[in-house]
Design brief:
Helices cover 31% and strands 16% of the residues. The chain is of the alpha/beta class and 318 residues long. The chain folds into three domains: 1-54, no CATH class; 56-114, no CATH class; 121-317, 3-Layer(aba) Sandwich (Alkaline Phosphatase, subunit A). The strands form five sheets. The protein has a three-stranded parallel β-sheet with strand order 3-4-5, with helices on one face. Strands 7-6-8 form a three-stranded parallel β-sheet, sandwiched between helices. It has a two-stranded parallel sheet with strand order 1-2. Helix 1 (2-13) packs across helix 3 (72-79) and helix 6 (180-193) runs parallel beside helix 8. The N and C termini lie far apart (51 Å). One of its GO terms (biological process) is glucose catabolic process. This is 2,3-bisphosphoglycerate-independent phosphoglycerate mutase. Pfam families: iPGM_N (PF06415), Metalloenzyme (PF01676). It catalyses: (2R)-2-phosphoglycerate = (2R)-3-phosphoglycerate.
Length: 318
């Protein structure tokens, strides 16, 4: 929340750690301080003799973020009258427009309201009286809850959630293992408890450390994950369960831009694996897309696939 406060003060008070005549000059100064684009510190853009460009009552702000998870905190700081994340030095009455709905409890204009999704995986599990656990650390908690549930904030019946705090470091190359050990400990305990019909877990290391562009850190992150996945696999096998290992995009597998040789910090569009661990004899189908994952899970569990799911199971059980 401290970063949110600095950004809020920058925009409402025109107060920041640094000042530059132009945005380009501000970026160049940040690079000279060894800050990359993701971590540029609060910089006021104000040429000599110019007035402050702080926000005032009646201004219109259109927030162009389409992802909800990283937009909620500062949106609430601008919009919520009862915001208590930090003491706001200046409260501005804005015409605030969210590009998409960041959260149902944020009461402001939405440019593109959410589509209503019926019978998502979590909802379908609840309708079939199944129990489920969603678990991750802070960086990916929204992905296994809000996003995986089709933009629904509240848990479904029979759904439990465990949040593991991500380490408080400036960048994750400083702690590439992140909180994977604690996450794995909780996950293994949940598997061995036999309490849940299904568990959705997200390990953020490959993505978050991959974003730093530091090869040595990415190697350590993957080594940590290898150990964690080994523990999870053994736990699943010990209870006669089934395990799917996959991802929704690449990152850490490409740490250098092949054209420039510079650090590559973005996602890749390379294919991702889909690994099955279990007692069933399965044959994989060629191809596959993200919308096939939920039908695949339901098929392996022997459950009916709702008609709203347009994907197909990616394994044939022989």
């Amino acid at each position: 929340m401290d970063r949110v406060e600095k950004a809020y003060d920058l925009m409402t008070l025109a107060q920041g750690e640094f000042q530059a005549d132009t945005a380009v000059a501000g970026l160049q100064a940040a690079y000279a301080r060894d800050e990359n684009d993701e971590f540029v510190k609060a910089t006021v853009i104000r040429a000599e003799g110019q007035a402050d460009a702080a926000m005032e009552d009646g201004d219109t702000l259109i927030f162009m973020n389409f992802r909800a998870d990283r937009a909620r905190e500062i949106t609430r700081a601008f919009v919520n009258a009862d915001f208590d994340g930090f003491a706001r030095k200046k409260v501005v009455n804005l015409n605030f427009v969210m590009l998409t709905e960041y959260a149902a409890d944020i009461k402001t204009v939405v440019a593109y309201p959410p589509a209503s999704l019926a019978n998502t995986f979590g909802e379908w599990m609840a309708k079939n009286d199944k129990t489920q656990l969603r678990i991750s650390e802070t960086e990916k908690y929204a992905h296994v809850t809000f996003f995986f549930n089709g933009g629904v904030e509240e848990p479904f019946a029979g759904e439990e959630r465990i949040l593991i705090n991500s380490p408080k470091v400036a960048t994750y190359d400083l702690q590439p293992e992140m909180s994977s050990a604690e996450l794995t400990e909780k996950l293994v305990a949940a598997i061995e408890s036999g309490k849940y019909d299904t568990i959705i877990c997200n390990y953020p290391n490959g993505d978050m450390v991959g974003h730093t562009g530091v090869m040595e850190a990415a190697i350590k992150a993957v080594e940590a994950l290898d150990n964690c996945i080994d523990q999870v696999t053994k736990a699943v096998e010990s209870v006669g369960g089934q395990l799917l290992i996959t991802a929704d995009h690449g990152n850490a597998e490409q740490m250098r831009d092949p054209a420039t040789g510079q650090a590559h910090t973005a996602h890749t569009n390379l294919p991702v694996p889909l690994i099955y661990v279990g007692e069933k004899n399965v044959k994989a189908i060629e191809g596959g897309k993200l919308s096939d994952i939920a039908p695949t899970m339901l098929s392996l569990m022997g459950m009916e696939i709702p008609q709203e799911m347009t994907g197909k199971p990616l394994f044939i059980v022989e």
